[in-house]
Amino acid sequence: MKRVYVNPEVCIGCKLCELACLTEHSQSKDLIIAYREERMQGLLPRNTVEESGWITASLNCRHCAEPYCIQACISGALTKDAESGRVVYEEEQCVGCWSCLMACPFGAIKRHPIKEKIVKCDLCPERSIPACVSACPNQALTFEEK
Amino acid sequence: MKYLIIGNGVSSIGAIEGIRKLDQESEILVISEEEFPTYGRPLISYYLAGKIGDDRVWLRKKDFYSKNKVTLKLQQKVTALKLAEKRVVLQGGEEERYDKLLIATGGTPFCPPIEGSQGEDVYFFTTLAHAKKLDANCANLKKVVVIGGGLIGLKAAESLFDRGVEVSIVELAPRVLSAAFDDTAGNIVAKRLKELGFNIYCNTTAKEIKRTEEGRVKGVLLQSGEFLEADAVVIAIGVVPNLTLAKEAGLKVNRGILVDKKLQTSEVDVYAAGDVAEAYDFLVGENRVVPIWPNAYSQGFISGQNMAGANRDYTGGIPMNSIGFYGLSTISIGLVNPPEGQGFEISTYVDEEEEIYRKLVFKDNFLVGCVLVGDVDMAGRYAGYIRFKVPITEDKVKAHLINNQPTYLEWPEEMFQAQWNSAARIR
Asked: Is there a domain that residue A144 lies in?
């Protein structure tokens, strides 16, 4: 399956991927409204730009072949879609037990700031290329099959 | 080929998904004593508390069994295994044939010999049926004593408390959550529960459940001499592997059913997974039962694949628990109470006011365990360091871990490339 791959060597830590993710998953689809208003209602980017000294890189769900998060999920909210390979999250089913957050060795799952729910990357199912990848100005993020 | 799975918990689901990865056609028969299709067992506390209803307890969608071509026989008890003939006997005498058998019968609540424990008003809390029974009687309960201050006991207590019941917790150990957590974490949780109005009695246990002349529960007499009035008692002391079938059939058992690295029992073509199995654990270098949810799934998943012809080793899972009490999240991963004098190094951070606690356990440049209370957001990253045995060679990296700033960017390059940039797999 196609995944988002990151190359820390060319990442410039600009966080445009975070903003693109925020916008893509907002109601308004408008960066300014998403950032200034929807964020306060709990909207947050699914990815995180990590920093370590001079090195930066964007972190998101790996959509693993055999995901630890799905093993750990007690509510059936996380499933592996057989066709697309995506780790699909159904917010309705989630009870906020944080088992997946604990089990994911990549730290790719976040707590929703308000609701007892998790937030994770969905690989932008409505787009052919995820928003973070499209927004990356230096091709530090690529969407490809490896 | 016919696969037969006894039990319908998360191991069984893992096994079905494991088998179907490799074999989309052969018959799969699941036999379960329970009356429901698979549900999220830990969800029963959410159910009893009224946080979720009958629509949300299911672990898989309604069409899971039909989609996976699984025949599900509910409310049927397997009474014997005829290993030589590759058949199992059901209650009533009917028999089922198999080519590959998985025993995923889980555990049963342990009930110590307490006088008065037999009869009405005494409950367990490990199945949806238990939760439904408590739910149905909840309106008539004013005071309940929960015997056992472990994860199951505390979740039962919390759910009942949410329903307006006065709850007392009785724990034999000096503090609650003694198995999964350390002193500080257990005490923070206990403090929170006490402030909310729970009664907690440690260092003691139930001596006798007193009953009225009509046989109804009227209270619990403690070893310490105290008497706690109660309309009902929940026994949550622990769960023991359901070994009867395996034992009677002559399979090798210890605390659980002994399985090899392929999760096969002492009998060829017979596998065991989940809370009933005792598998080799590479973390401790010996066989042990690790009765936790993610391990049950992964053992099911791997045994299922092996039943379908794969040759995969189960290398052991890391014990981990995530559990919340009234918004206070707690997570423990790996080795959290290391033995003294064996070279373990412990780092702790406590902010009692904010109810934040963090304990990291290191050994020889590796993180081997952690406890997180309150601030659990970094749990997965710590889990990564533990799971992948990421070496911590620089002081700076260790300092970041200790200060709640673990990052995969500080993994050695080759580990980053191998783990992060390719599809991760279950080991």
From this structure: no
Its domain, for residue B202, covers: 122-237
Residues of B in contact with A5 (CB under 8 A): 421
Same domain, A86 and A48: no
Partner-chain contact B56 A93, CB within 8 Å: yes
CB contact set of B341 (below 8 Å; sequence gap of 6+): none
**pLDDT of the residue at B422:** 60
Q: How many domains does chain B have?
A: 3
Tokens for A121, please give them.
């990357």
Q: What are phi and psi of B269, to 5 degrees?
A: 70, 5
CA–CA separation, B389 and B392 (whole Å): 9
Q: Pick the residue of B36, B39, B56 with the most A CBs within 10 A to test the interface with A by mutation.
A: B56
Residues of chain A neighbouring B159 (CB-CB closer than 8 A): none
Q: Report which residue type is found at B48.
A: L
Of residues B14, B293, B380, nearest to A74 (C-beta) = B293
At B175-207, the pLDDT tens digits run 999 887 888 999 999 999 999 999 999 999 999
**What tens digit of pLDDT does each residue of A108-121 get?**
999 999 999 999 99
Question: Is residue B328 within 8 angstroms of chain A, CB to CB?
Answer: no
